[in-house]
Specification:
single chain
């Protein structure tokens, strides 16, 4: 007889549903975990993998959470769709930051941005529905689409266009089964920011073909230079009834661990998603919601300081990566990621090995230079690295120097 917790005769696949068994591990979290494990062993690993600010959550937000812990109101269940005062504050914040005018019943507060992503797809997609997914894409998008029964249809972009999908590409990928476009600007992983005229053009095209648009705006405040973030349902008001906007406090306020995101959309969609959430997780932690209330209601001073630091690091990493032979890196306009191409290095000999893929090259960089990066395979575009510059200036410079020294040996 097999011991408890072991398998007697069938394969592992038979013990896990095909639906869940097909999910790939989050590559970004896996790289971050491996880097942290190596550091715990005493190795001086510098990690460019994690997509989170290196700043602490601003003190007024932390103080609001501490006070919330002592308030008995927060010790009990609260509405699954979010604290009424937080939903009201998100309405005000959305009008302030993007000129998108909404009502509280169009807002659903979720356990982080990832839950907002999954619930949106689960609410809108039926089996076989196709979702246009510009690549490179955030690793969670295709997994959440498939879990909801949808089919991700990749629309490839590259550095030659600044990682921006064209209307012609989107139209070429559209079929009678296309139901939705996933739109992310500023982009994770590339830092690309779509100009307002392109946003409007894509929005009008979606209206023409009666497509839904899910637009992820979580990096809305992290734009640089002359780049400008605009919200698609604001640029194309007639799209609003077929558009869901995703957002959260994680990136703007350095609150990745607090797990507060939200969906904004038509009332029937939000009500249906709230019904799902009532069975899935119930309410978001009340303490985290009180912290988020302080964040979205307060000034953007801390955000401006973080953006200034990210901008400085952005210019540094682009300059340093551009000096490495065989590496090409367009200047990111938003978020806090660089997405350099390393295609010219693949197949070349580096310290006795010839990495054929960006995954193999990333493994070599981690082992030989003790620098952790996420390979492009995780984002649907082999031949690239994603490098977060949300880390200290000294670590950033030292990490790129180490990587440059190693990659410069390619022959």
């Amino acid at each position: 007889m097999a011991a408890p917790g072991t398998q007697a005769s069938s394969t592992t696949e038979s013990r896990v549903s095909a639906r869940v068994g097909a999910i790939a591990e989050s590559a970004t979290l896996a790289v971050d975990a491996k880097a942290k494990a190596l550091k715990a062993e005493g190795r001086p690993v510098i990690g460019f993998g994690a997509g989170e600010p290196d700043f602490p959550t601003p003190e007024p937000i932390v103080r609001a959470a501490a006070e919330a812990c002592s308030d008995p109101r927060n010790h009990r269940y609260s509405p699954a769709s979010g604290l009424p005062e937080l939903r009201e504050a998100i309405v005000t914040k959305t009008a302030r930051d993007s000129n998108h005018v909404i009502q509280p019943n169009q807002v659903l507060v979720t356990n982080g941005g990832k839950q907002a992503v999954y619930q949106t797809f689960a609410t809108l997609l039926d089996p076989g529905d196709e979702v246009l997914l510009p690549a490179p894409y955030w690793t969670t998008y295709p997994e959440a689409i498939r879990l909801a029964g949808g089919i991700p249809v990749e629309v490839p972009t590259d550095e030659s266009t600044g990682y921006l999908a064209t209307l012609e590409q989107l139209e070429a990928a559209r079929t009678p089964r296309t139901k939705m476009l996933l739109f992310n600007s500023p982009s994770n992983p590339t830092g690309a920011v779509y100009p307002p005229e392109r946003v409007a053009e894509i929005g009008r095209w979606a209206v023409e073909h009666e497509l839904w648009v899910v637009t992820d705006e979580i990096y809305e405040h992290l734009v640089y230079g002359d780049a400008r973030h605009v919200s698609m349902p604001v640029e194309v008001p007639e799209l609003a009834d077929r558009c869901v906007v995703l957002n959260g406090v994680a990136k703007t306020y350095a609150m990745t661990g607090w797990r507060v995101g939200w969906m904004i959309g038509p009332t029937d969609v939000i009500k249906a998603a709230a019904n799902l959430q009532s069975h899935l997780t119930s309410n978001v932690s009340n303490v985290s919601q009180r912290a988020a209330l302080q964040a979205v209601s307060g000034p953007l001073d801390a955000v401006a300081e973080m953006r200034q630091a990210f901008d400085r690091r952005r210019r540094t990493i682009v300059e340093m990566l551009g000096s490495i032979p065989g590496v090409s890196c367009p200047e990111p306009k938003g978020a806090f990621y660089a997405y350099p191409s390393v295609k010219e290095l693949l197949g070349k000999e580096i310290r006795g090995v010839r990495p054929r893929t960006s995954t193999e090259l990333a493994e070599l960089v981690l082992e030989q230079a003790e620098v952790a990066v996420v390979p492009g395979e995780a984002f649907g575009t082999p031949g690239y690295f994603r490098m977060s510059y949300a880390l200290g200036d000294e670590d950033l410079a030292e990490g790129v120097r180490r990587m440059a020294a190693l990659l410069s040996e390619a022959k």
